[in-house]
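Tutorial handout. Part one gives the primary structure; part two gives the three-dimensional structure as tokens.
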Amino acid sequence: MMSIAVRVPATSANCGPGFDSLGLALAMYNTFTFTPMEGADTYSYTFQGLGADILEQENPEDNLIGESMKKLFAVVGEEGVFGRIDVSIAIPPARGLGSSSTAIVAGLMLANRLVKKPLSKEAMLELANEMEGHPDNVAPALLGDLICAVQDGAAGLCYGKISVPDSLRFAVVVPDVLVSTEYARSVLPTQIAHKKAAANVGRAALLVAALQQNKPELLAVALEDMLHVPYRKELIPCCDEVFAAAREAGAYGSTISGSGSTLIAYCNESTAHQVVEAMVQVFLRNGIECIGEVLTADANGADYI
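Part two.
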């Protein structure tokens, strides 16, 4: 059998007020290549690129790529295919850009190409959501654009896809600060005042309307959050200062990407580069190394290459 390669985009979960329900696919990609090996009964891995040293330290038996491949083979009732998986990394791991979701989605896509009766993307999304636990990362990674997804006990996974305006740009800054998702969840309160919850619902709805109607001027209000950002920003040095710098440089609004530590500002094309530079300079002035990039949305999600 020939090698199979798949490319999976980064994701920015929550999108401000859409906690655990909104997720955005970004044009930054990890690439995964699977080469079947005769006689193999396990998966071996090679990593190159950003954060390869972190991933190399993980136990291969726990790798999400192989785990998701095994899951799909089991679901369709076919014998597993094993071999080598080569990963080219552009998405920094453990920074709130959906690195783990790319691994889950990639494994499912790779295995799906090998089975006699491939699953639909909708069926793969169900499997990915079972593994990830929250759809706001895996859904945009698989499907692209902005995804609104909720898990309902009776109806299962319900989601809708919203096209992101072509004119929108995203200033993404990744500081050299690790924030684990588990710890970022531990700092959240167990209860929120009804008034704050209602305000958050309104902003999440406004965010969707702003993108659907291409009214980016609404994003300054729509990206405000009261459920997680006020608590998680304490884990990211200079967070408020970076947000202020982005706004002064021309951003519509900004927020934490996923659970952090990446910060993301929504901009237009003419101001995006000055916004990302302003954000980067705040971190550098405070002695924190970082990476800054201007990205577009990814409209298609994971695909074979």
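Part three, for discussion. The mean pLDDT is 95. DSSP finds eleven helices and eleven strands in the chain.
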